[in-house]
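Technical appendix A lists one of the benchmark inputs used to test multi-chain prediction within the project. The record comprises two sequence entries:
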Amino acid sequence: MRRIFVLALIVLTIVPLIHSQDAPKTIAERLGYPRDAKLLIVHADDLGMAHSINAATMKAFETGLVNSGSIMVPCPWLSEIATYARANPQADLGLHLTLTSEWTSLRWRPVTPSDRVKSLLDKDGYFHLTETEAASSADPKEVELEITAQIERARALGIQPTHLDSHMGTLYQNKALFEVFLRVARNQKLPVRVARTWFGRTDFLPVTLAPDDVYIDRTLDINPSVAPNDWGKFYSDALAKLEPGVTEVVIHLAYDDAEMRAATIDHPNWGAAWRQRDFEFFTSDAFRKVLQENQIKLITWREVGKLVK
Amino acid sequence: MRRIFVLALIVLTIVPLIHSQDAPKTIAERLGYPRDAKLLIVHADDLGMAHSINAATMKAFETGLVNSGSIMVPCPWLSEIATYARANPQADLGLHLTLTSEWTSLRWRPVTPSDRVKSLLDKDGYFHLTETEAASSADPKEVELEITAQIERARALGIQPTHLDSHMGTLYQNKALFEVFLRVARNQKLPVRVARTWFGRTDFLPVTLAPDDVYIDRTLDINPSVAPNDWGKFYSDALAKLEPGVTEVVIHLAYDDAEMRAATIDHPNWGAAWRQRDFEFFTSDAFRKVLQENQIKLITWREVGKLVK
């Protein structure tokens, strides 16, 4: 009888340990959800860049269907979105750390004194136009100065960022930049946009992350191969097939208006009409229905950030 | 007979000299126009600040009724108006030297590395909100650095400025700033917005100007006491009474659209509707008729600038 008791004790103690070694807790489980829960962050990029983007995103936040976004500190309309952030401290707003100025009629510059971050500048004194130019020219020390300054500037304006990501993915372009990004994020105790499904894309991503770093399962975004008429179908189909775990759908909201058309002139990809289509789908009853029908639960970076030690 | 001839010669030689000493040539005469000519520069301020301003002003230029403008180099839409300047080298475009960032949702910063022009910055790292704060804080040496940098930046982008003026009049706020402004303008061999009728406003203006400096006779601008319905009447009446000489009518064009309303939020003065009213009057047949009926001839700063030695 006593042996059986001891055996039972051993089994009860060891089996869960073995089980947890076989299948470590998923991020969903660490967040307190079942392993098969489908969790979605609906995230609007590029806040602060233009009024049209701010206005459409603030409108979309009202529906509750878009529940997260990130802000570009060097951009001209920062002050408008900072006012919103101060008035809506519950809003899930992060920083869209910015090292590129990709449009041709509307441009922006670093917040650091420009002579201290020369490697980040193009010949006109703005950030480089593309993420590849930006990444190949950037001195990682200057990147660290600049992204730290962006975070400090945001905090000084009363923005309490819940997460960090990288405009046009510049900070994921090479190991040195990604290391800077992670170091700054760890210092700030903020989660970064990194997904497990990206690990195959580059050698450095999985090896640079430490066991304590928090990352989500996957991101989902539309691309220029999708025809405008298939916009809603692309998202609905992707969400109907959504796998369990934490997914961030990365979207770009704005109105197809004069400001946005001029800002994105000659660039239909991620242009004004593109952003209007994103706005329409993600504020629609169709999107709400897809969420309901597929038992998709919306979560935010604020929740994910609680796992950051 | 011979005496009469000599006397006549003396009279014919001396009298015009006496006359020209009594009445030195007016700027109209120096420009080759009769003394009683009514000459008008129709000048749109604030180019580069917002797409709405650029778009409305470029549209107004097409009518020929608005024939001059000035550009704010630190502002986000500089690149769009620089593209226009390069494509329209005949356009009469000057620089609206900028030391204030007066709106609350849309803001801008110096082009000089910020740690070298700290006296120009507010607590958020932008230019000060008002011209009085800007002028009282500004170190004239830093002002010289910044306005020179603005001119160099404009030239580097292919803008060939025909004149200089000062956004919100900051550079006319005190003698030290006005001296910097004049020194930079003289070095650049560019005319500045100064009018003879301003001489009574401050002690320093007439004494700072040198005999070689070129200035116009007067400026004309509308003010917040004019009711929106009286907009056209105000300008038409003022132009019907226009005195001879060179007048600059200083106007602010934009569309009353979402971008401009957000940019000027809570500030009806010089706001979106104000600028739409200016656009409507200065592109109207009514304005064209007033010019014709009052024999008012349009000239540009490019012409005035030819007098600068």
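The longest helix of chain A spans residues 2-22. Strands of chain A lie at 38-47, 68-71, 93-97, 164-166, 218-220, 245-251, 296-298. Comparable benchmark entries are summarised in Table A2.
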